[in-house]
Amino acid sequence: MDVGYHSYETESTHTAGKVITCKAAVAWGPGQPLVIEDVQVAPPQKMEVRVKVLFTSICHTDLSSWKGENEAQRAYPRILGHEAAGIVESVGEGVEDMKIGDHVIPFFQGECGTCICCRSRKTNLCQKFGVNPLKSVMVNDGKTRFSTMDGNPIFHFLNTSTFSQYTVLDSACLVKIDTKAPLEKMSLLSCGVSTGVGAAWNVANVQPGSSVAIFGLGAVGLAVAEGARVRGASKIIGVDINPSKFFKGKAVGITEFINPKDLDVPVHEKIGAITEGGVDYSFECVGNLEVLREAFLSTHTGWGLTVLLGIHPSPMLLPLHPMELFNGRQIVGSIFGGFKGKTQLPKLAEQCMCGTLNLDEFITHELPFHNINEAFQLLIEGKSLRCLLHL
Questions:
Q1: Which residues form the Alcohol dehydrogenase-like C-terminal domain (predicted)?
Q2: Which residue ranges form the domains of the chain, and what is each CATH number?
Q3: Structure pTM?
Q4: Which of 12, 168, 194, 283 measures 20 to 30 Å from 210, CA to CA?
């Protein structure tokens, strides 16, 4: 979809500073079908931005939140969604790095640029706008920018809430990109692709000629493979119980596949046998403790590194004995692939535009926004990686 800057700027002059009524997919309770209905979206306050969402997609985090798997994180009614791309409709006081008509990508792991974490090169965390599943309101006033037509609040989600034709975000959770970048593909950089590619590049720092094992071949796992391929990994092993994922895996560089159901030995023993003792890097993208342990044991003693990407429910603890770390294996967690959204995502978008990364393989379905429940079902059944919704 190509939206001209000048035409959209003209359109926005009629809505800036006013409440906008638009369509949104509202979650009213755990596991209940999302309801497409009219909602009111308030103007952005200080250091906030209101965005017209053009494309959004569904991640497993949206799925688990929609199901209400963690009772402590429940908040209804709520507008979910955190992968998207759109155009700035209006900006609040103090926003200087974006203007009406800019093409933007939202991201759940904010970057304020001033806190001790944002100033450090050692982390991509942010003390003020870091991801917080319990957060359901805006930082400025502790209130929502969404409301029902009769004025009742609708809660926010992961700093983004992209299942709406318009959304309001803190400017720390939004970045301007090149207007030549295809927005429908750039939406993938909001979460899945950035999380996987960044885990390979920023967190593990995969080296040329190295070996990699990826446990779980959803969008994040396949993005890890894409990142490892670009870095020159010589052996990329994909592990998944769904054999339909293997065909897609070949397209992003996976060289060997293992279906645990086909083995009569633990996965780590199989990997050890085909890699002379284990891989250099393993990535756990499932959120399962047994899988995490297999990923850890599949790495080589002395230097193996396991990167944890799966979302594990509380109160689960690491399935490791402290003494196992004395064998030289390491384990580290990764959020948003170690990327700092404001300072690093524009460069990643450029790499996608020039063909360094191939995003086409990740969009398996496209549907109109009002078919969002169908898109959820595709993900539940394991039939889609990313279903792109057109708003």
A1: 219-344
A2: 18-189+360-388 (3.90.180.10), 195-334 (3.40.50.720)
A3: 0.93
A4: 194
